[in-house]
Amino acid sequence: MRRKGLVGLLAFVVAILFSVSAFAGGFIKIGVQAPITGKFASEGQSIDKAVRLIAKQVNEKGGILGKKIKVISCDDEGKAVKAAICARKLVDAGVIAVIGSYTSTCAEAAEPIYYRAGVLQTSDGTSDTLVKHGYWTFFRNSSPNSAEAKFTAEFFLKKQHYKRIAVISDYSTFSTNLAKAVINDLKKMGGNIVYYGKITSGAQNFTPILTKIKSYSPDVIYFSGYYTDGGLIRAQMVQLGIKADFVGGDSNDNPEFLKLAGKAAVGAYLVNVPLPQMLPYPQAKEFLKAYRETYHENPASIWTLFNVDGLRVILYAVKQTKSLNTKKIAHYLHYELKGFPGITGPISFAPNGERVGSAYMAYRIGPNLKYNIVFKEK
Amino acid sequence: MEIFFQQLVNGLTIGSIYALVALGYTMVYGVLKLINFAHGDLVALSAYIGLVTVMQLMGALSPVLLIIATFIITMILTSLGGLILERAAYRPLRKAPRLSAVVSALGASMIIENGIMLIWGPMPRIFPASAVPNANYNIHGVYISLMQVLVLVISFILMVALYLFVNRTKLGTAMRACAIDQDAARLMGIDVNKVIVTTFIIGSALGAVGGLFIGMYYRGIYFNMGWIYGLNAFVAAIIGGIGNIPGAMLGGMLLGIFNAFIAGYVSSSWSLALTYVLLIVIMILRPTGILGERVAEKV
Questions:
Q1: In chain A, what percentage of residues exceed pLDDT 90?
Q2: Quick check: is A7 in a domain?
Q3: pLDDT tens-digit profile of A185-216?
Q4: CA-based nearest residue to B116, from B213, B49, B201, B55
Q5: Radius of gyration of chain B, Cα coordinates, nearest whole angstrom
Q6: Is B260 in Cβ contact with A239 (below 8 Å)?
Q7: What is the count of structural domains for chain A?
Q8: Same domain, A176 and A262
Q9: Chain B residues close to A211, C-beta within 8 Å
Q10: Which domain holds residue A299?
Q11: Core-most of A141, B188, B250, B268, by most CB within 10 Å?
Q12: Residues of chain B neighbouring A203 (CB-CB closer than 8 A)
């Protein structure tokens, strides 16, 4: 009996130590949960580096509420199982907020653990389901897929005034869902879809489906899959003498698209969030400069900057609420924060943790393969 | 009508590539009764060899010479690959049970595929647009590119040449003899090993042309593309009657055209599935393939 009591006492002491550790050391602990190794290593490392850079900048100015920021990273390798382990580790380390993860899958796997521990989480994951669990701890710092679909539909009907729309997707969940969402939004807005078909990703020969689409004489072909197929579709479209526009979803936005399509890339449209160097905001230019000076390279992609915004907005909320109580911070973010000047645009959150507004843009690829913005959200 | 002819052109182009690759399967099967599963990966390898050659020679040669040089160098190097494959993976197992050779073929396939990935990386590699002829013609609403014309013409010439070689030359006759009965051929004074080596060289060289066409026409190449092209070409060889050379050509063309017409007139989402349904129907009606002869099972 005595032994049991001792263990209980010990556990109690440890629990107290952990629960106050965020305050006791004079540190504000921030976690990074990212795929630092594995398939998405470049993205994960970039996010980790960027978070550390922000922490350094804040600490050099004396920290927040008189406390320095301490960054604790955990590598989830882009795998759901590792994500859950990371989440426990970071919670145990006493972080008040976690930046991560890069993939929707990992962010979703970690969500309930942060929620139960009352730790704030901000992720760039685009899956619509991330904000559907009702966790007050979760904040999406990017835009969901549904926002891309809505933007695409508006671009098609309000800017380009397409009358006959053909849609192609591959068989992947991501691509099919995006295509279906675009079709739904187009139909809601009165768009006329003349064709929807699927291709086998990697098949390379898309002339049969394109010839078939040609017979419907569409004025645009929208492709929701990946750049490896998109570039070829664009090239083969032009080769078959199809005069319709080509619009590619966000996964077509890759330098390889331009190489695969070759000359045919000119005149193609892509829909995506902006490239880091295209962000018009002064705070974006400032951050990119600091990042390049520290690491002698560019951030891996726009996703790094979304995550940085997630961190900046949480730190701002800490400052405003003068508190490390995550409930208070979350309440501030949900209901009081309006139009915070983020690197990726103004930030506000809906009560479900969704970022309000999105930053999608449509580009037209110019003769020198430069991106020209032709349409963006107000 | 334009659409019909356009689909025909689409189908014939990809069909020619399938046919070239299918010849490699069918020739080796004819002589050795072995499915050379590594053939598709050899085709993928040839595309990479072609890419490296183009990159090295680009600028040093005029565009026409560049293409000719690329074809010759790639065909030689790929044949060498086929030669090594035969020596290392198949010859030691020639007397072993059939299954051992099949496993060895699958192993060789994986070695080549992963070798490509380790050397050139898992990202797709892309043929430079400037190294490939890119003229495009519009004939009464049917669009055909210079590259497609090249694919069709060169494939046709190669197939006729192969047909003449097999039927009109001494080595070709020896090859047919080995296909019928290796032991009898040996008794007649035919060097069977030499014939088998020649088969691998020709099959690999034709596959190399197919690989180069894939690289130059579609421009993007992947380390694992040997699987999908190999599978389609293998199917083409079976449709035509495996072991039968004109059969492989016919099978490749039919497969390409089926695919285009099903995608064009039925449903593109279902084209792959329906193509295989058709394959099954052909197999039921003619178990030995369209041109395949009924071969007496050796006991």
A1: 55
A2: no
A3: 999 999 999 999 999 888 888 999 999 999 99
A4: B49
A5: 19
A6: no
A7: 2
A8: yes
A9: 3, 6-7, 10, 260, 264
A10: 21-143+279-347
A11: A141
A12: 228
Find where tokens 């002829």 sit: B133
> Domain for residue A12, yes or no?
no
A-B CB pairs within 8 A amount to: 88
From residue B88, how far is each of A130, A253, A309, A343, B112 by CA, in Å?
A: 53, 44, 57, 59, 13
Q: What residues of B are in contact with residue A227 (Cβ under 8 Å)?
A: none
| Same structural domain, A139 and A192 | no
Q: Are the C-beta atoms of residues B16 and A250 closer than 8 Å to each other?
A: no
Tell me the whole-structure pTM to 2 decimals. 0.78
B interface mutation test: which of A210, A211, A214 has the most B CBs within 10 A?
A: A211
The pairing of beta strand A340-342 with beta strand A245-248: unpaired
Cα A142 to Cα A127: distance, rounded to the nearest angstrom? 10
Which residue is associated with the tokens 């590259």? B147
What CATH code is carried by the domain that includes residue A199?
Answer: 3.40.50.2300
Where in chain B are the domains? 17-225
Beta strands A27-34 and A68-75 are parallel
φ, ψ of residue A298 to 5 degrees: the values are: -85, 155
The reply to whether A175 and A215 lie within a common domain is yes
Q: Does A9 reside within a domain?
A: no
In a domain, A35, yes or no: yes
> A179 and A104 in one domain?
no
Name the residue among B126, B228, B259 with its Cβ closest to that of A208.
B259
Amino acid at B37: F
Looking at CA atoms only, how far is residue A241 from chain B in angstroms?
Answer: 7
Task: State the residue for tokens 């979304």.
Answer: A306
Name the residue with tokens 């050397």.
Answer: B119
- Cβ–Cβ below 8 Å for B126 and A260: yes
pLDDT in tens, B135-171: 888 888 899 999 999 999 999 999 999 999 999 999 9
Residues B268, A228: C-beta atoms closer than 8 Å: no
Q: Using the Cα atoms of residue B289, residue B295, residue B296 and residue B297 in order, give the sign of their dihedral.
A: negative
Angle among Cα B22, B290, B101 to the nearest 5 degrees reads: 45
**pLDDT band per the 50, 70, 90 thresholds, residue A371:** confident
Report chain B residues touching chain A, CB-CB < 8 A. 3, 6-7, 10-11, 13-14, 123-124, 126, 129, 134, 136, 138, 141, 143, 145, 214, 218-220, 222, 225, 228, 259-265, 267-269, 271-272
Q: Are B126 and A232 a contacting pair at CB < 8 A?
A: no
Q: What distance in Å separates the CA atoms of residue A28 and residue A23, rounded to the nearest whole number? A: 7
